[in-house]
Structure formats: structure tokens, C-alpha cells
Design brief:
Strand order of the largest sheet: 14-13-12-11-7-10-9-8-15
Bound molecules: nicotinamide-adenine-dinucleotide
Distance between the termini: 51 Å
Shape: globular
Oligomer: single chain
């Protein structure tokens, strides 16, 4: 019998639970090690999932030759450093989004992938939702035609989680790099990864983290500190592609909106798709407009099954039976786009890509 792939997870905070559950449910691998700066967090997970090795220093974990592959679930500021060290140690890497904070870091990770010939996949979990896997089949069969416009909006009226999320040093930014990355990537992926021509963006720091709000609960990170917030409340951008297509996006942590809202739409010359809150494909036949509602168990974005698909895909990539649908290039391109939006906002001008 073939031995199971040995998996380690670095960073045992909120999102690690989704990785732990999904690896635990995959019969081709076994959880072999966990690592967190906070030893208790790592030990608790090890106990729950019967994981034999616990570390507080990721370098020690990487020197364990038994480990085949790792998930990086740490704050954004350590993604690049850990990815490079892991590739150099011969481990396969699933790195949570975003790949890292800056373009310079992204290029170093890309160089490490090339130099080591290793495997690195970015955790763009939304690509793995069943609704997206279904939609991709329609797109690949040409049923939406040429996708020339997309629009994505994830607005939280009171949703700055604080902690490392609101510390630009550790996160690289606010809602744009945290939730914007998901929807910009998703639209770009469904549009066929077109080359970016230019980016124009705005960011606003008007309301702060709204820690003044009473009688209304919102999610707060473990190390929430109402006094520390160095990230934007809201970002918007218009991304124009070389093929003439465009993508409009806005995302917020704080906004005077009546409700939280989410919308992800793509429009082609033969059909369109509305992805949130659930997939609907729109087209026209015999001079009649059709709204098609695919009948799938999870017609919207469902966390657990999407993570299971992502982890199953990563495990198969490690075993050589599949190739990553989100390779390093897609991580680098997204960091270029996010950084260009921040740069455009700061300089008050459009940023041209070459
Ligand atoms: N795919 C998704 O939908 C999704 C959702 C949430 C978070 N994320 C991403 O996952 C990552 C973690 O987010 P989170 O919400 O779990 O944060 P978190 O703060 O809950 O957990 C992060 C953990 O990493 C540990 N850590 C930080 N630096 C470390 C290091 N150098 N070595 C070892 N441990 C370290 C911290 O002690 C903490 O326990 C972020 O990059 C975030 O963008 C992805």
C-alpha cells in the first residue's frame, strides 16, 4: 500500500480549522505536524486531531524530513518567508491568500519556485466552490461568449476584525487585500486571466474601525485593540485589461450602509452569470431571455465543501495526479493588481501595466 502524504500546518488560528478538517477527511494524507507561535493553540489542535508533532518555530518543523507538504495559515507578513523556506526544504506548499504583501516578495517566491522546481499553490478557495466549478464548464464551452465586464462588491458596514487584520505591517492592507483579493481573483480567473492594462483605485480612511458602535456585535480577532487601526475602511477600483475587458470592484470593512452586501457578476456577449448569493446564468434563446438556475447542492459559496475541494485538489497535485489551478503566477499577478490599486489611491493617478 502506498504511504500517506504527511501534512503540516503552520499558523493554527481561525482558518486553520478549515484546513485541519479537510485534510483529516482526505484518506490519501495524514496530519503529521502543527506549528504556531502560541504553543497552546498548536497543542490543542494536535490533541483534537491526534497529530504527533507540535512546533513553535516553523524552521524546526521544516527540518523534519518526514513532512511532505504544508499549509501556510499565518498572518500575511510571513507568507513569503515561510513559502521560500519550505520550498528550499523540499516541501510542497499551499499558501493561504494573499500570496504575500508586496510585489518584491511575490517575485522572490516565484524565483524560489523556479529555482527549486517545487510545487506552490495559492489558496483561492472561492475557485473551488461547486458553483464555480459548474460555471467554469459553461464558460469553457463558450456559452457566455467573450466576457467583457465584471463587477464585484463585498461591503461590510461594521466588520473590521481588528488584531493583525487592522495592522498594515502584518496584513499589508485592509478590506482590499483581505476580502478584495478573493473576488478580484475570482472574476479574473473566470474572465480567462486577461493581462492587466491599467488600474485606477481609491481608498478611504473616514470611519476607522467604528469601535464606538454600541449594541451591535461584530467579529473581532483574538488580539483586538480598538486603538490600533492602520488600514483603509473601503477601497474601490476599475481594472482595465489589454483585451478591452474591465472589472469594477469595491470592498469595505466600515461604511454607512444599511446592510452588508455581496455581489459578483460577470457579463459576456452570449451570456452572463450572477454568482452571489447563488449561481444564476443568464442567456437568450429564440429571442427570449433565460435565467438559468443550476440545481447543485451548494448553489452559493459554501465554506466547508469549498475547502474540501481545495485541499483534495492540493493533495492530488502533491501526488502528481493533478496540476494546480492556482499556481504561483496567479499569486504574483494578484499582488501586482492589489499593490497597483493601493499605489493609484496614494498617488491619485492611474497605474499603467507594461
Ligand atoms: N481562504 C479564506 O477564506 C481565508 C479566511 C480567513 C483567513 N484567511 C487567511 O489565512 C491567514 C490566517 O488568517 P486567520 O484568520 O486564521 O488569522 P488568525 O490570527 O486567526 O491565525 C493566525 C495564526 O498564525 C500564527 N502565526 C503568525 N505568524 C506565525 C509564524 N511566523 N509562525 C507560526 N505561527 C504564526 C498566529 O499566532 C495565529 O495563531 C491569513 O493569511 C488570511 O488572509 C483565508
Amino acid at each position: 500500500m502506498m504511504s500517506k502524504l504527511k501534512i503540516a500546518i503552520i499558523g493554527i488560528g481561525s482558518i486553520s480549522g478549515s484546513h485541519l478538517n479537510a485534510y483529516h477527511s482526505n484518506s490519501k494524507c495524514q496530519l503529521w505536524a502543527v506549528c504556531d507561535l502560541n504553543k497552546k493553540r498548536a497543542s490543542d489542535a494536535a490533541e483534537k486531531f491526534n497529530i504527533p508533532h507540535v512546533y513553535t518555530d516553523y524552521r524546526e518543523l521544516l527540518s523534519n524530513p518526514e513532512i511532505d507538504a504544508i499549509s501556510i495559515c499565518t498572518w500575511n507578513n510571513s507568507h513569503a518567508e515561510i513559502s521560500i523556506a519550505a520550498l528550499e526544504a523540499g516541501k510542497r506548499v499551499l499558501c493561504e491568500k494573499p500570496l504575500c504583501k508586496t510585489v518584491a516578495e511575490a517575485l522572490l517566491v516565484e524565483e524560489a519556485v523556479r529555482r527549486t522546481g517545487g510545487l506552490l499553490m495559492i489558496g483561492y478557495v472561492r475557485r473551488h466552490a461547486s458553483s464555480i466549478e459548474v460555471l467554469k464548464k459553461f464558460i469553457d464551452a463558450g456559452e457566455l461568449g467573450e466576457i467583457y465586464y465584471a463587477k464585484a462588491s463585498l461591503l461590510r458596514r461594521l466588520g473590521n476584525p481588528g488584531g493583525w487584520f487592522s495592522d498594515k505591517e502584518r496584513s499589508g492592507g485592509g478590506p482590499l487585500i483581505d476580502i478584495g483579493v478573493h473576488v478580484i481573483d475570482l472574476c479574473w480567473y473566470l474572465m480567462g486571466r486577461p493581462k492587466v492594462q491599467s488600474v485606477k483605485g481609491h481608498t478611504y480612511h473616514k470611519l476607522g474601525n467604528r469601535s464606538n458602535i454600541e449594541n451591535f456585535n461584530f467579529y473581532q480577532a483574538a488580539d483586538y485593540d480598538a486603538n490600533h487601526n492602520t488600514v483603509e475602511d473601503i477601497a474601490n477600483a476599475l481594472i482595465t485589461f489589454e483585451n478591452g475587458a474591465s472589472l469594477m470592484v469595491d470592498v469595505s470593512f466600515s461604511l454607512h450602509a444599511q446592510q452588508n452586501s455581496s455581489l459578483i457578476n460577470i457579463y459576456g456577449d452570449k451570456g452572463g452569470a450572477e454568482i452571489e448569493p447563488q449561481l444564476s446564468i443568464v442567456t437568450e434563446r429564440h429571442n427570449t431571455i433565460l435565467n438559468i438556475e443550476p440545481q447543485i447542492s451548494h448553489p452559493g459559496f459554501e465554506f466547508a465543501s469549498s475547502f474540501q475541494h481545495e485541499i483534495d485538489h492540493f493533495v492530488n497535485c502533491c501526488l502528481g495526479t493533478e496540476s494546480p489551478i492556482s499556481p504561483i503566477e496567479d499569486g504574483v499577478e494578484m499582488i501586482k493588481i492589489l499593490n497597483a490599486i493601493y499605489q493609484s489611491a496614494e498617488d491619485g493617478r492611474e497605474i499603467q501595466f507594461k
